[in-house]
Amino acid sequence: MITAELVEKINYLARKERYEGLTDEEKNEQQKVRRQYLDGIRQQIVDAMEGAGYTKKHDNHCECSECKSRYDS
């Protein structure tokens, strides 16, 4: 879920990276919060599409190679 705190953290780390640089720990945190943000955006898109009546072509029961690699991880 995308929260104001998550966006603030992303922006803070981006500014710090630009002006001061980040420690290895902060770089890891930056990757983590960016991934959370992108996952949230993806979920919003899926929810919007499902709300508009579209159904998923693939799911965790699909046998195609793309889905197998995605859901086996």
Can you describe what's shown?
The chain is mainly α and 73 residues long. The protein has one domain (4-71). Helix content is 70%, strand content 0%. The chain is built from 3 helices and no strands. It has helices spanning 4-19, 24-51, 65-71. α1 runs antiparallel to α2. The radius of gyration is 17 Å and the shape is elongated.
Short description:
By secondary structure, this protein is mainly α. Helices cover 70% and strands 0% of the residues.
Extended strand count: 0
Shape: elongated
Ends apart, CA distance between termini: 21 Å
Question: Helicity range of the residues?
Answer: 55-70%
- The average pLDDT value, as a whole number, equals 87
Q: Give the biggest beta sheet.
A: none
User: What string gives the helices and strands in order?
Assistant: HHH
Strand residue content: under 5%
What count of domains describes the coordinates?
Answer: 1
Number of helices: 3
* Structural class by secondary-structure content: mainly alpha
User: Which residue ranges are poorly predicted, with pLDDT under 50 across at least 5 consecutive positions?
Assistant: none
Radius of gyration (Å): 17 Å
